[in-house]
Amino acid sequence: MKNHARLYIDTNRIISDIPPLLFGGFAEHLGRCIYEGIYDPSSPLADQNGFRTDVISALKELNFSIIRYPGGNFLSGYHWMDGVGDRKQRPRRRELAWQSIETNQFGVNEFIQFCREINTLPMLGTNLGTGSIEEAASLVEYCNAPAGSYLADLRISHGFRQPHDVKYWCLGNEMDGIWQIGHLEALDYGIKAREAAKLMKWQDPSIKLILCGSSSMSMSTFPEWDRNVLEACWEYVDYLSLHCYVGNRENNTPRYLAISSQLEQQVDILAAALRYVKAKLRSKRDIYLSWDEWNVWYKAQNWQGGWTPAPHLIEEEYNLEDALVVAQWMNVFLRKCDILKIACLAQIVNVIAPILTNPTGLVKQTTFYPFNLFRKFTNGKSLDVLVKSPVYHADQVGEVPLLDVSSCYDPDSGTSTIYIVHRGLSENLPLEIIWQDLAPKTVIDIYQLAGMDPKAANTFERPETVVPIRLPGFEIKDKTTTLIVPPLSFTTLVCKFDVTN
Ligand code: AHR
Question: I want to staple 211 with a disulfide (CB 3.0 to 4.6 A). Which of 62, 237, 301, 380 is the partner?
Answer without folding.
Answer: 237
